Amino acid sequence: MGALPHKRVLVKVSGEALMGPEAFGLHPPTVARIAADLASARALGIELAVVVGGGNIFRGVQGAAKGLDRACADQMGMLATVMNCLAFEQAVEAAGAPARTLSAVAMPTVCEPYARQKALAHLGKGRVVLLAGGTGNPFFTTDTGAALRAAELGCGALLKATNVDGVYSADPKTDPAAVRYERLTHSEAIDRRLGVMDAAAFALARDSRMPIIVFSIQEPGAITAVLRGEGRATLVTA
Ligand SMILES: Nc1ncnc2c1ncn2[C@@H]1O[C@H](COP(=O)(O)OP(=O)(O)OP(=O)(O)O)[C@@H](O)[C@H]1O
Ligand SMILES: O=c1ccn([C@@H]2O[C@H](COP(=O)(O)O)[C@@H](O)[C@H]2O)c(=O)[nH]1
């Protein structure tokens, strides 16, 4: 895979990856490392929108399994993503890049409400834009939110920064026989029910012809490496 030719990309950072060695929540050195990588990517002259997951704090399906109403549990999950974005906003600024959090769940005393034109204006000024609250609706995920925002903000690619180094034929964490793909299509990922992203996210990306690059965020400099076409990753295309 060569260097990405895009002026603007969206990076989806897994919430779970922010735990570092901990079992829950935010591990500040890990957040600082990923934030420094985002600041370096921006220094390459690329406009960066970032969606952060919430799996390090709360997932709606887990709340629902314990008896919470699913829609309410999902709202709690969306709030978790706001907390992660606020932590990232500080860490990205500490790494030397201006950053703004925009939330799909309006909370104007905490951060700006999400509006497409606002996000585009911040991106145009070179700010790293952290998109909190996923889609703003229950029954969705931040992967789907990432595909949605990548399309509406005119990003050239969706970079999925996660705990594994690509897309496999099965979950590599539970199936040692899983085989890694170098490249596949969105439709193949949906048809084979590959769980690295949910089907809604793959379908949205397919319909907007959005390439997805899946790679591990465990290595320092992983985001800039992928942007330079140097990293180990799986490319998902139409
Ligand atoms: N076919 C597959 N190929 C690769 N990874 C897979 C596959 N099926 C399931 N996975 C799992 O999907 C995970 C990627 O999801 P990730 O943790 O980034 O998700 P998320 O739900 O978007 O984020 P969060 O942690 O914020 O909830 C990997 O850690 C991996 O274990
Ligand atoms: O559009 C969305 C995005 C997310 N949620 C809820 O947030 C949690 C955390 O997001 P992850 O994608 O799992 O990291 C998710 O489990 C949902 O409960 C949502 O409702 N709508």
Automatic annotation (TrEMBL):
Entry keyword set: ATP-binding, Cytoplasm, Kinase, Nucleotide-binding, Pyrimidine biosynthesis, Transferase
InterPro entries: AceGlu_kinase-like_sf, Asp/Glu/Uridylate_kinase, Uridylate_kinase, Uridylate_kinase_bac
Organism domain of life: Bacteria
Reactions this protein catalyses: UMP + ATP = UDP + ADP
UniProt key word Amino-acid biosynthesis: no
Domain Aspartate/glutamate/uridylate kinase: 7-216
Function: Catalyzes the reversible phosphorylation of UMP to UDP.
Protein name: Uridylate kinase
